[in-house]
Amino acid sequence: MSKSYFDETHCAIGHPKSTFMQWMLTVDHKRIGLMYAAVMFTFFFIAVSTALLMRFELFAPGQQFIDGDTFNQAFTLHGVIMIFLFIVPGIPAVFGNIVMPLMIGAKDVSFPRLNWFTFWLYIFGSAIAIASLFTDAGFADTGWTFYAPYSLNTGTNVIFTLVAAFVLGMASILTGLNFLVTIHRLRAPGMTFFKMPLFVWGIYATAWIQLLATPVVGITLILAIMEKYFGIGIFDPSKGGDPVLFEHLFWIYSHPAVYLMILPAFGIMSEIIPVFSRREIFGYRTIALSSASIAGIGYLVWGHHLYTSGMADIAKTVFSLLTFFVAIPTGIKFYDWIATMYKGKIILSTPMLWAMGTIITFAIGGLTGVTIAMIGVDIHLQDTYYTVAHFHYAMLGGVVFLFFAGMHYWFPLVTGKMYDESKAKIAFYMQFVGFNLLWFPMFIAGFLGMPRRYFDYLPEFQIYHQFSFFGALLFIAGLVFMFWVFYKGWTKGEKVGPNPWHATTLEWHMPTSPPPLENHSKVPYVDFDPYEYHHGEPVVKFDYETMRRID
Amino acid sequence: MSNTLEGFNSQAATFAADVDQAFWINFWISIILFLSVVVPMIYFAWKYRADKVKNEDICKVTHNTSLELAWTLIPTAMLFVLFYYGYSSMKILRTMPAESQSIVVHVEGKKWSWNYTYPANKSGYIHKTAELYVPKDQNIILKMTAPLNDVLHAFYVPAFRMKEDVVPGRITKQWFNSEVIGTYDVECAEYCGTRHSYMYSKVHVIPRAEYDEWFESKKRTPGAPDVKISKGQELYESNGCAGCHSIDTDAVLVGPSLKGIGAKYDAGYLKDAIVNPDKDIPEGFTAGVMPPFTLPDADIDEIINYFNNTDKGKELYEANGCAGCHSIDSDAILVGPSLKGIGGKRDAAYLKDAILHPDKDVPEGFTAGVMPPFTLPDADVSEIIRYMQSAK
Ligand code: HEM
Ligand SMILES: [Cu+2]
Ligand SMILES: [Cu+2]
Q1: Coil, helix or strand for B106?
Q2: Which residue of A66, A276, A346 is the best one to mutate when testing the B interface, meaning the one whose CB has the most B CBs within 10 A?
Q3: Which atom of ligand 1 has the smallest separation from the CA of A44?
Q4: CA angle at residue A151 from A149 to A154, to 5 degrees?
């Protein structure tokens, strides 16, 4: 039997014999992607457990299980892990690594050693963040936003978290750089930008954000550290600094960062919809260019986080207007996806279910985002649970759901096996229902004036928190079940060939399943569009040995 | 503070209706946009489900210019309607009325309490309160800030749909005009640490007459029973002391302000100063201006009692936010230890230290660094201590 990337690998240093060391030192993009996934989902589960702890505490007003300070550390831990350790590396680190080079017919990323180094930088940064849990001062209690002057005054261990976020930012920049160069330099001959699969477009747009926006947060974090330890007086009002400046700097990065999370996720959507509709995607160019324009305009809207921070009305107006401009390309993509389903042949496999479920949840996340882009309304809803529900709909119901969609879609590619479809569907329904039960009531609570980051609340809000609690239980049960289905699939699943979904893009044209170490046997020549179907079957067929077209 | 939801979903400020209108327009447009995506999706998924479609029937449209224009332009138009309403409601919320036609109240947010300072009333008295009292149908401008060594807070009144951050070192403003008599919750909406979720206050909208009466009085709150004017105060006023010495403020009228004087000097000195003022003239004042008063000893004692009044201490205790972290009439532990009966346990010097340098000696079970050091005039500290000693 031919060898897959599980059997052999290239290493950053030397040729170690032990399998363990081969994994630690591997430069193979597929293995690195898998290792990211393993570490990221470990953190994800820690953050989910922390969320569950908060949900328990919020089950009733008053103090139940943890005190106020612990609660504050809990939402900080939850937010920091979810954002910096999980969703910012996110889809690019996992599928950008595993799938993107395959999609463009490359043997690896442009700088495989740098990729290896970046992974370990990520591990190092995460370790620093987690280490502060075990120091005397305890994990930071600032919220994931580190607003000054609270972060400068608090006695908890903010420095670890700041340094960790900085290091993780470095890793993010390097990933972006690597992917940019890869996409520019390593596309198979014939593959022009408009012949790239849309997931590659998503990764490409994201890479620019990683490269250009992340340095801003790096600088901000350094300034915060200098302020805290040397009192340079930039943010600290007692030294003449300005705390609102911190908010601006923070969001100049963190707003584009939300597009950095969602664009690759939209890319996954654009892969799944045509494959499971068995027809070419509607409006390919519009979708590609809307990713690019979202990435562009996304830099200019950060001020919508500061409507109540003390900013001139004219600035608010401009930021609001620009924010509405980002909503337009996002909306157009939705219509393009739906139009792709028109007169297709819709196959409701698990990846398609996740994609369609996400269209519902992300539509809610996006439209409630429009609510709080409206200045007057946001003045009421800012920093309430309405906002918290909005970003959970966008990040969990958007990015993470599509991440899961991608995990189902590419599962056979990565493992060469298939999971149990019917069980996977049950897991989907549990999570879909649980998620809505978990977060929808919070829109109402927020609308009625329930502020965020409240450890205790007025009794009238209890009913919403209780729905939410049961939603969380159902959601988390579904989540655990889904990972169990993956585990079973990987260990006991049926073996499948290279292209079980009848997909068109290059990652499905591998000589073996799972793919071999250096990917395609020969570099293919790409003179076709990414999603060409005829009568429900892929148009382009390859001889997997020679990578010549045989259709 | 008791936690009850008061008036959350009512429109108690003039602009609340505009904000709500903007919200509901957004709500219905969102429903339309949502359905325009989700209904066709579900319909297609059903209509073109795999077992109903023959491969030959799959259609290949990848472009349709008029359709694409429609789904670009129509939602865009809708979005701009929403932008407009967001903008117009903001305009109403953020266009401050003229200060001359408004009551300007200074709001201080600090870990973890709110306090309000009013302009001086006719008799020069300045109300400083822990809850906000405003007359109905009146423009109120809030000028808000936080102490320099404090953190961000946000002054949020859900019933009014208004919110603005309170930033140390800056003065941010909000305004409102409430048409509905009632009591409304104020919440802190910007994360500020341990007791962020207890940083409540209230806005009381009361009838004009009631407000005016309170405002011109020295009553702590409009509902409060008349401050019984003590014998001492009566004597202080009837003997004309008040004409030359302010006692509630630091203002220098003719002689020095007597604010907090009781804490600075003992009774003997004060008595001398009344009976024989030229014996010891404070720096900056000249002898011979104040006439010697010949009053019965009993009266002098009453006046000195008045100097020592402990109500002041209570006011300071609340206004400085001590009450946010330390209960004083119960044993409940909020953030710091309860101060019930503390006067019997610790002497004044210790208490003073505990206010000015809280981390010097932290009681068992509490951590240093939680309570901020307070920098208060000695007189105020003495008042607070006297209050703590009197609260049994
Ligand atoms: C199991 C699912 C989840 C549950 C039950 C959950 C629950 C919560 C809760 C209760 C809060 C605190 C809200 C507050 O007190 O204001 C919170 C905050 C937050 N969550 Fe989640 N969450 C979940 C998943 C996620 C995911 C997937 C992400 C992002 C990838 C995320 C990102 C955040 C962020 C950024 C915050 C704000 C933290 C802060 O205020 O500093 N959460 N979540
Ligand atoms: Cu944003
Ligand atoms: Cu607060």
Answers
A1: strand
A2: A346
A3: 27
A4: 105
Q: By 3-state DSSP, what share of chain B in percent is helix, strand and coil, each rounded to 5?
A: 45, 15, 40
β-bridge pairing B102-110 and B139-145 = parallel
Q: Residue B93 and residue A453: Cβ atoms within 8 Å?
A: no
> Using 50, 70 and 90 to split pLDDT, how confident is the model at A549?
confident
Q: Which ligand is nearest to the CA of B146?
A: 3
B38 to A360: CB separation less than 8 angstroms, yes or no: yes
CA of A81 from ligand 1 middle (Å) equals: 10
**Residue A516 CA to ligand 2 centre (angstroms):** 41
- Whole-angstrom distance, CA of residue B270 vs CA of residue A401: 76
In this structure, the strands spanning B102-110 and A548-549 are unpaired
CA-based nearest residue to A90, from A81, A78, A101, A103: A81
Give the residue-averaged pLDDT of B244-255: 75
Distance from CA of A539 to the nearest CA of B (A): 13
Per CATH, the number for B99-215 is 2.60.40.420
Nearest to B271 by CA among B243, B292, B249, B250: B292
Ligand 1 atom nearest to CA at A80: 35
Is A313 an 8 Å CB contact of chain B? yes
Name A299's Cβ contacts closer than 8 Å, sequence gap at least 6: A212, A213, A252, A255, A256
CA distances (Å), B139 to each of A394, B136, B179, in order? Answer: 39, 9, 10
Nearest CB to B90; choose among A363, A379, A460:
A379
Within 8 A of B57 by CB-CB distance, chain A residues are 343
CA dist A111 → A27, A108, A183 (Å): 9, 8, 12
What separation, in Å, do the N-terminal and C-terminal C-alpha atoms of chain B show?
A: 20
DSSP string, A203-239: HHHHHHHHHHHHHHHHHHHHHHHHHHHH---SS-GGG
pLDDT tens string A207-247: 999 999 889 888 998 998 888 888 888 998 888 889 999 99
CATH 1.10.760.10 domain residues, chain B: 231-307, 311-390
B84 touches chain A (CB under 8 A): no
- Nearest CB to A384 within list B61, B150, B189: B189
- CA-wise closest residue to A142 among A282, A262, A276, A247: A247
Q: Which CATH number fits domain B231-307: 1.10.10.10, 1.10.3720.10, 1.10.443.10, 1.10.760.10?
A: 1.10.760.10
B60 contacts in A (CB within 8 Å)?
279-280, 533
Q: What's the domain count of chain A?
A: 1
Among the bound ligands, the one closest to the CA of A45? 1
Residue A456, phi-psi category: left (phi > 0), alpha (psi -120 to 50), beta (remainder): beta
How far is the alpha carbon of A155 from chain B, nearest alpha carbon, in Å? 7
pLDDT tens figures, A292-343: 888 888 889 999 999 999 888 999 999 999 999 988 999 999 999 999 999 9
Taking alpha carbons only, the member of B246, B284, B270, B259 closest to residue B378 is B259
Q: Whose CA is nearest to atom 22 of ligand 1?
A: A51
Q: Which ligand is nearest to the CA of B155?
A: 3
CA of A436 from ligand 1 middle (Å) equals 14
For β-strands B153-157 and B162-166, DSSP reports them as antiparallel
What dotted CATH number matches B311-390?
A: 1.10.760.10
pLDDT tens digits for range B40-75: 999 999 999 988 888 888 888 888 889 999 999 999
Question: Can you name the CATH fold of B16-94?
Answer: Helix Hairpins (1.10.287)
CATH of the domain at A322: 1.20.210.10
Looking at chain B, the whole-number percentage of residues with pLDDT higher than 90 is: 30
Identify whether B168 is preceded by a cis peptide bond (ω within 30 of 0).
no
Candidates A514, A272, A16, A117; CA nearest to A109 is A117
Residue to test with chain B: of A242, A305, A367, most B Cβ within 10 A? A367
